Amino acid sequence: MQFDNTYYLLFLWIVPFLFLFYIYSLQKKAKLLNKFANKKTLEKILNVSSKKVHYIKAILMLLICINGIIALAEPKFGYTWEEIKRKGVDIVVAVDVSKSMLAEDIKPSRLQRAKMKLHDLLGILQGDRVALVAFAGTGFLECPLTLDYEAFQIFLDYLEPSLIPVPGTSFSNALETASKAFSADSGRGKSIIMITDGEDQDEGLKSVLPTLKEKGIRVFTIGIGKEEGIPIPDEQGGFKKDENGNIILTKLNVKTLEEIAVSTGGQFVRSSSGDIDLQKIYTDGIKANTKDNDFKSSKKQVWQKRFQI
To answer: Computed over its alpha carbons, how large is the radius of gyration of the chain?
Structure first.
């Protein structure tokens, strides 16, 4: 047996107090009647069975109370198996976790704002599977394709630059890792959302893009940051400096991100203020132009509600 609203069962503590109250009230009533008249007189003016009726009434009231509380808790026992068919697309989210994503031209930082917006995206997904890739100098699959959005959210919360030991930013490694995250049943419903400041330090990108297009993988790039340039905070305090002691500036590289999106049939979105319209990308860019896949059906145990008894 299971209960939908177990917290209502706490009210069962009322039952012992009601029981004691009925015992007290019946005894109090008996004492008052004994003061009013003696036993023989009471037997003449009162129904002999009235005492039993009071006890039966008390028992019935307690049973009503118990059953009412259990009904509120919505008991369930006995179940059937229900087949669930899921339709949707596969989306791999690739998030740049390089040091430059700690820049604070977007508050509280580029990386934190990206994570906040991805949390919002999870709330509008319509049966789609999502995976998470973190990348810097190399890419790493943090969360494989899943319908468990809570698990995805846990991995998302832990994204930090310290996750990837290889410094720098490599789009080719990121996209290759993301493309490998798709499964055999992904069909043509495959999309990558890549959130980055666009500072690619690898030359292997041009060889990856034709492969993605051939596989039918569309890449939606989101450039986060400003083009003016801003210092990168250092964990030890101050800002990052190069070998000559000059402060390193990081700025949004729009050209590369536009090239990735155009080459794969995706879309580029600039986020200079931190407002990433992921809902528009998802609704108008991904769902409107990508055919849903029929994912493997599964069976779900459906418990029968019995509170109406």
So the answer is: 33
